[in-house]
Design brief:
globular; 32% helix; alpha/beta; 5-stranded antiparallel sheet
Length: 302
């Protein structure tokens, strides 16, 4: 089968070219040098370069629709709630009454959808670098955002996340960083200056939460995120979750605040019930359990 322009773009961007036979078409992510994930594609919906990255959206046989940027899986319909619920609900439920929320990244709208489930939210600002990703996800992945972008509480800003927070002071109760890995355009979102800017953008008692990769393959990413957070915030905790299509399946998140972030299971359960939440992956018990780390992950924090 002839190589397409999008395949050439993927090779040029340094990711793995697609695997083809005469009858089958696969999206293949190079998760490490020696570990690749392949998902069989039913139909490609879009494959093109934006101003910043290679954007691919496909219908797959087993995982529903798939979104990839620069050859890396951002989400599939089958497991996106596993990621978005664990990124959003731990910090949102840790805060007693989140009214103003900032999401950096997350142009697919999944994190925004989960934030808006909390009835106390009065304003949700989503800052996305790549407008093409946001527009194509609205059009081709409405199953993920589920109308979140049309909510009157939502404001979308097309801007670099690190630049946006530089101009914010005491504005947000919760900041959620739903970024790609710390390379290229996302690298500043994993820096100590960015975390310091986020701290200034938070109200008193505010909470910052970010995804920080897999502690199985990307040990340095996890270790450095926690180390930098600890230099900025008084209280920092790593927690973990399971996302089948992400590298290794084991994913880490870091929650930080100058206020208390360790709540009892009872408090989390009460807030979860009071807010009328009903999730696919997240539960208060999962929240509580996710803070108890495997020994090899604990060792990374030493």
């Amino acid at each position: 089968m002839p190589t397409t322009q999008s395949e050439n773009l993927r090779v040029a961007k340094g990711s793995l070219a697609l695997t083809h036979t005469l009858k089958e078409d696969f999206f293949t992510e190079k998760q490490t040098e020696n570990v690749h994930l392949s998902i069989r594609v039913k139909r490609w919906l879009i494959r093109r370069m934006t101003k910043y990255q290679l954007l691919e959206i496909a219908e797959t046989y087993d995982m529903g629709k798939l979104l990839a940027l620069d050859g890396k899986v951002m989400l599939t319909e089958a497991d996106e709630r596993f990621y978005h619920e664990m990124l959003v609900h731990p910090p949102m439920l840790t805060h007693s009454c989140p009214k103003d929320v900032l999401i950096i990244g997350g142009g697919d709208g999944g994190a925004l959808r989960e934030v808006l489930l909390h009835p106390s939210v009065e304003r949700a600002v989503l800052v996305e670098l790549d407008e093409d990703v946001l527009n194509e996800c609205k059009k081709l992945l409405p199953e993920v955002s589920q109308g979140a972008f049309d909510d009157e509480r939502v404001k979308v800003v097309i801007e670099r996340g690190e630049r946006f927070v530089e101009h914010c002071r005491n504005e947000f109760d919760v900041i959620i960083v739903d970024s790609t890995d710390p390379i290229g355009n996302a690298k500043p979102l994993f820096s100590e200056p960015f975390y310091k800017a986020c701290k200034l953008a938070l109200k008193e008692g505010g909470i910052l939460c970010t995804q920080c990769g897999t502690p199985f393959y990307f040990k340095d990413e996890v270790r450095e995120t926690v180390k930098k957070m600890r230099r900025v915030f008084l209280n920092v905790r790593l927690y973990i979750g399971f996302v089948p299509t992400y590298p290794s399946g084991l994913w880490a998140y870091c929650i930080s605040s100058d206020d208390k972030i360790e709540l009892s299971e009872q408090v989390v359960e009460e807030r979860y019930t009071a807010r009328g939440l009903k999730c696919t992956y997240y539960t208060p018990k999962v929240h509580f359990g996710a803070l108890f780390l495997p020994a090899f992950v604990e060792a990374l924090m030493e």
